Amino acid sequence: MAMIASVTMNFPHISTHNNSFNQAFSPICTNNPSNFSSSSFSSIPISSNSIRLSSSIAYSEQLIASHNVNRRTKNHKIKVISARSEPLKVMISGAPASGKGTQCELIVQKFGLVHISTGDLLRAELSAGTDIGNKAKEYMNTGRLVPDEIVTAMVTTRLSKEDAKEKGWLLDGYPRTVAQAESLERLNIRPDIYIVLDVPDAILIDRCVGRRLDPLTGKIYHVTNFPPETEDIKARLITRPDDTEEKVKSRLQIYKQNAEAILPVYSDIMNKIDGNRSKDSVFAEIDSLLSRVQKEEQDARKSEESAISSTRADMASLSKDWRGIPTRLNNIPHSREIREYFYTDVLQATQRAVNDGKTRLKIEINIPELNPSMDVYRIGTLMELISVLALSFADDGKRVKVCVQGSMGEGALAGMPLQLAGSRKILEYMDWGDYGALGNFVNIGSIGGKEVEKQDDVFILVAPQNAVGNCIIDDMRAMTDAAGNRPIILVNPKLKDLPASSGIMQTMGRDKRLEYAALFEICYQFRLLYYAGTQYPIMGALRMSYPYPYDKFLL
């Protein structure tokens, strides 16, 4: 297979490769152009060859650099145990009187985490008279519960402060509802470990009913487990209004319902601890768990540093060891060898991202047969790529839902993007292998929350896109919310706003749509470079394959 060789350039965030190549490498064109471009790249001088890309590559370089920095920092926070130099992030949950407050104090003393309690936050916001505090006060004054969005806003604001970022955090008794847990998930706020203190109901009820409060000092006693020191103190002790048996049982029931509902969100990192022991015994187990998490992170960090060194060495020799980029992409149809080359390249990057715990991914590949703006676009090539991805996950025992958006709009305006016309029928009639994958491990559906079923493990969305007068974002958002932390992979999405006389995609709400689209991280991107203003001949390519940085290949 003929390949593109690439020139050496000194860019800080983009890896490029040596121009020397043997007879196995054949360039597309022997002329060195003075200008060439892709539709979204710009001007970078190449002193050795006096080649300049047209005016948009500089901007792309900034975007790429930013993408790589963000991927190394922000996105890695959502991993449960990952190779990163970050402090501990802990959630702790427990029923009333489970000893959670005592354990929080001990955890803070030992590990120096920032203790974040929604009760403390709410009191602080009310005392400071902030906007959030005033909104919460309106609900509290009328006896209503403070809405989840207000509580979540308080928590996320506190988590964003420098001390929480530097020292790590201990989130006490939050989230309490599915809506709160899902809000944190959407914001990629996830702990390293989720601790649940487990105490039998009878013990909890006894602890609550036997509690007594000293109104003078605020100190809590218990009639049998922690009696007051003197008769004078005993005489002034009172029972809190919510420590009656009836109210305790009601609170326990509410706690159990909420805890059970949010359990699936954190089941992979949950550690249940027997709380019916002395505080020292309980903390000894918590201490052991948190210390283990810290050690695993340190080991992973060392492994990452070693991997980075190895990767740099590999990339330094890439021009000798790697096959390079196929160059005969102007030949239509593409040969099976070229198509399979890209299918494998995309698959490997996607598998690495999913294995690393990434759940919102997108693939962008614009070789001619996959570029709908070119007259050589072939929907069969796109469907073939989809089947390779789906069958690979199916081979691992996962159930895959391949989703194609349906007709959009109503009446005379009903229709679907031309790029997707007939795609569902093609998928249904394709060869899905000899072992009956279709209907068992691979199913075909539409885009929307109702398409998400319990048995689905992975969702592949085929070129989701907006159309004039219609927006696919709401259907996608419903689907991602329903899917939770299961991987959703977009293949060649087009989620930018389009003009619409109906006002569906005008200024209102645009920031929210763009914010949603930005949730999906690129795990594979391949873009061709051409002469300025043309799509022929191919002069090079820009490629990113997770988790590696962008590579530029030029003639």
TrEMBL record:
Picking any one GO molecular function of the record gives: kinase activity
Residues covered by the DUF1995 domain: 339-551
- List the transmembrane segments: none
Q: Which reaction does it catalyse?
A: AMP + ATP = 2 ADP
Its family?
Belongs to the adenylate kinase family.
Q: Assembly and interactions?
A: Monomer.
The UniProt keyword set, sorted, is: Kinase, Nucleotide-binding, Transferase
Q: Does the keyword Transferase apply?
A: yes
Lineage at the top is: Eukaryota, Viridiplantae, Streptophyta, Embryophyta, Tracheophyta
Write down the top EC class of this protein. transferase
EC number(s): the record gives 2.7.4.3
Q: Which InterPro entries match?
A: Adenyl_kin_sub (IPR006259), Adenylat/UMP-CMP_kin (IPR000850), Adenylat_kinase_CS (IPR033690), Chloroplast_ADK (IPR053021), DUF1995 (IPR018962), P-loop_NTPase (IPR027417)
Q: Which organism is it from?
A: Solanum pennellii
Provide the protein name.
adenylate kinase
Q: Which HAMAP family match?
A: Adenylate_kinase_Adk
